[in-house]
Amino acid sequence: MENGNTRKPDYGTFLGIAVAFAGILTGLLLEKGTLQDLTQLTAFLIVVGGTAGAVLISTPSANAIRACRRCRLVFFQEERNYRALLDQILAFSVLARRGGISYIESSADSLADPLFRKGLLLAVDGVDTNEIRRVMQLEMQLEADHAEEDASVFDTAGGYAPTIGIIGAVLGLIQVMKRLDHISEVGGGIAVAFVATVYGVGLANLILLPFAAKIRARARLESEKRELICEGVVAIAEGLNPHLIRARLESFLNDHGGTRPAAGRVPVSQTAGARVPVSQTAGAGSGM
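Now predict its structure.
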């Protein structure tokens, strides 16, 4: 089944990269430099290859591969509609109170979000609410741990890159020292040698470390969404009144720009039939 995710480009990431590189290149050109001054294939290979190798040595390969896959979260963000998600939780609660908790099984089984689906099916099976919460929170913690591990891969790479850049600069200076008998070439050779340092520092501070920070920010948003789902499922399993569930969960909407419904009203238009339209699930999936 499709997970129902709607992703859109994170224009902040694209704009940030463009502004950073534009600022650096503009400064270079203002100092009468040229793009060719920063174009050095050897330095690029040393920095990128050395950094990648160091990361592979220090990080389990499975973690490194998963971190690379998570890169898409840096460039694309999930559209999270907390109001739609809360409305769906309320719709399930209305169904459960009308026909009993088993009445929601067919709709719950069709949910795209695996955490939401698992929690409701546990409730249908009559599992104790404390156990439901423990199961869901365990999954939430595992996903948060994976996100932190993936961010740490980029942190690690960001720590290695500047040092690898210095290694590249030293290697370049060694080659310059070999040509001291051609003193006119020394200045240009030193300039080329330090390009590796620029690559290392730039790669770390413009790409790797910001990627780690963005992955952590995405993980925090995902954790908030999952917390909303967890609290909603537990409330449904407890048989709470939909109005009380709404009051309990609306704090999530206040933090994310949700719009309050009319006072004293619970949106039940989705509950006219026996099924809840799962296509409206907001932000389904884990973000991976």
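Residues 102-239 form one domain.
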